[in-house]
């Protein structure tokens, strides 16, 4: 039996994941729906390949029966996660993906019992979204065990791949999301802003519907979660202006147009950009008793990090080292999982007392 099947193996991120798995000496099956692309990649990588679409149930099962775990890299996962998870449940194959989509996390969380019955681990979010932030959330929850409020954020550089840009276009007009009192709530785009020192000086940042709004609750049990991305003032203004274009932004005609532009123009970060860029990740917890703790990570560029975290986690899951059922990265492997990735550093500010009347969260306009 092979260790891993990488589905969407010839996409931008899938190719990076395959490179990493092959470099680590894992036995990898390459898979996707484009025969030429999969076969050419299989020759280059000296791996076996399987060609199937996700609606070819029999072929999905035959391929999954050959491996311990699948690393699903073919997004948008709103469209692709379910048929692959169904296949994994039928065949007893561990499931991992690199989604950052909140509805996908929440849907897969509801399949916890089925996954346990099938004896498999279902672990979405094994990339930049959400491994570093999830590990930071777990670390902060350890530092302040009675925390009831969590804010996470990041300052990323290096650019977007085509698939990430397509997923972003697909979600245009959907607004933002935060978690309050344990429930995910829709909020306007760029709902709150605040100044954050991500680790290299204070910057403006706005709330975004990042995957941790779903996952951090499963990892830490903290019921209030906001996620911020660094954004210059003009980007916050543009995002807020975009709220008024909601119906237009949701229009399928506009989305098709933008997807064509993405396909024509977006190539993803170059090898040099992936090697040289760094990302800054920040997290803050507060307790009702008036304590606050802040921790930070410096990480490699997002796609470089994704190739490493996805394969590191997949290797552990394939070895049977993860609990069965629905899992988050830090829920399965603890807050220090991220420190096993080369190039990651974590720092802690001392825990401080805060004025309970003061809210450290961002402000609404
Ligand atoms: N969480 C994270 O940190 C993180 C990091 C990187 C990427 N991502 C996500 O991963 C996804 C892929 O990104 P990417 O940059 O690698 O994109 P990409 O270069 O466009 O590759 C996408 C891959 O998915 C396949 N695919 C798409 N829809 C499919 C479907 N319905 N059935 C079968 N295969 C399908 C594509 O095959 P075809 O060419 O045949 O369509 C291609 O192999 C995106 O959703 C992105 O947001 C997340």
Give your account of this protein's structure.
By secondary structure, the chain is α/β, with parallel strands linked by helices. It has 2 domains: 2-128 and 304-333, 3-Layer(aba) Sandwich (Rossmann fold); 131-301 and 341-353, Dihydrodipicolinate Reductase, domain 2 (2-Layer Sandwich). It is built from 15 helices and 17 strands. It has helices at 12-23, 35-45, 57-64, 77-91, 102-109, 112-118, 131-143, 162-170, 212-220, 233-242, 246-249, 252-265, 271-276, 302-318, 329-333, and strands spanning 2-7, 28-32, 48-51, 67-72, 94-97, 121-123, 147-155, 176-180, 183-187, 193-197, 202-207, 225-230, 278-287, 291-300, 325-326, 345-348, 352-353. Strands 7, 10, 11, 12, 13, 14, 16 and 17 form an 8-stranded mixed β-sheet that branches. Strands 3-2-1-4-5-6-15 form a 7-stranded parallel β-sheet, with helices on both faces. Helix 1 (12-23) packs across helix 14 (302-318), helix 7 runs parallel beside helix 9 (212-220) and helix 8 (162-170) packs antiparallel against helix 12 (252-265). The model has no long low-confidence stretch (mean pLDDT 91). Bound molecules: NADP nicotinamide-adenine-dinucleotide phosphate. NADP nicotinamide-adenine-dinucleotide phosphate (NAP) is lined by residues 8, 10-14, 32-34, 53-54, 73-77, 79-80, 98, 100, 127-129, 161-164, 167, 302-303, 306.
Query: Helix proportion of residues, in percent?
Result: 40-55%
Number of separate helices: 15
CATH homologous superfamily classification of the largest domain: Dihydrodipicolinate Reductase, domain 2
What is the CATH class of the largest domain?
A: Alpha Beta
- End-to-end Cα distance: 56 Å
Q: Biggest sheet, open or closed, and with what strands and sense?
A: 8 strands, mixed
Distinct small molecules bound, one entry per kind: NADP nicotinamide-adenine-dinucleotide phosphate
Kindly estimate the percentage of residues that lie in beta strands according to DSSP: 25-35%
Indicate how many domains the architecture comprises: 2
Overall mean pLDDT stands at: 91
- What class would the helix/strand composition place it in? alpha/beta
Give the strand tally: 17
Round the Cα radius of gyration to an integer and report it. Answer: 20 Å
Estimate the global geometry from the Cα principal axes. Answer: globular
Unreliably modeled segments: none
User: Architecture of the largest domain, according to CATH?
Assistant: 2-Layer Sandwich
CATH topology description of the largest domain: Dihydrodipicolinate Reductase, domain 2
Oligomer: single chain
